[in-house]
């Protein structure tokens, strides 16, 4: 009885430690960034003014990446638009270098070294404060 109680305590203790470790927000430091335009996009002519007005600082980029949630391709397709302007660069996430692309449509890609791109979306209601366009409202069908 005492032995099985100890094993349960040990498992619960390990789970609690892992959960609290995973719950901590990562730290992000922007190493480099620049704004890029896709002037070959068929939407460039209609988007040019909004894209040129859209400005982010390193602090805002770090804030946005910290507050985004991972999503999949169908979510991007259904809820977000892709604008012909993005910020691209490198960040350190908990000390690990990653490439990023932050699109004006309030979504981003992060690419850990040696791995594929991971897709993120900004789901907060204040997206228009930081992006040209936030996520599309869900239809109530």
List keywords for this structure.
about 140 residues, disordered N terminus, 6 strands, alpha+beta
Can you give a write-up of this model?
With about 140 residues, this protein is of the alpha+beta class. The chain has one domain. Helices cover about 35% and strands about 30% of the residues. The protein has helices at about 1-25, 45-55, 60-65, 75-80, and strands at about 30-35, 70, 85-95, 95-105, 105-110, 120. A 6-stranded antiparallel sheet has the order 1-3-4-5-6-2. It is globular, with a radius of gyration of 19 Å.
Summarize the helices and strands and which ones pair or pack:
Layout: H1 2-23, E1 28-37, H2 44-53, H3 58-66, E2 69-70, H4 73-79, E3 85-93, E4 96-103, E5 107-112, E6 118-121
Antiparallel strand pairs: 1-3, 2-6, 3-4, 4-5, 5-6
Name the beta content range: 25-35%
Give the helix proportion (percent range): 25-40%
- The biggest beta sheet, please? 6 strands, antiparallel
Low-confidence stretches: 1-22
* Extended strand count: 6
The shape, in one word, is globular
Nearest-integer average pLDDT = 82
N-to-C terminal Cα separation, in Å?
Answer: 55 Å
Order of helices and strands: HEHHEHEEEE
Classify the secondary structure makeup into a structural class.
alpha+beta
Q: What's the arrangement of strands in the largest beta sheet?
A: 1-3-4-5-6-2
The number of helices is 4
Number of domains: 1
């Amino acid at each position: 009885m005492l032995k099985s109680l100890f094993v349960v305590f040990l498992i619960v203790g390990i789970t609690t430690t892992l959960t609290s470790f995973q719950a901590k927000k990562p730290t992000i430091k922007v190493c480099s960034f620049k704004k890029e335009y896709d002037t070959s996009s068929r939407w460039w002519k209609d988007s040019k003014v909004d894209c040129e007005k859209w400005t982010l600082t390193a602090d805002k980029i770090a804030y946005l990446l910290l507050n985004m949630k991972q999503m999949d391709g169908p979510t991007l397709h259904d809820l977000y638009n892709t604008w012909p302007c993005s910020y691209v660069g490198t960040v350190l996430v908990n000390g690990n270098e990653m490439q990023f692309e932050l699109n004006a449509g309030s979504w981003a890609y992060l690419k850990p070294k040696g791995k594929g791109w991971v897709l993120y979306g900004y789901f907060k209601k204040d997206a228009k404060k930081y992006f040209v366009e936030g996520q599309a409202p869900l239809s109530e069908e």
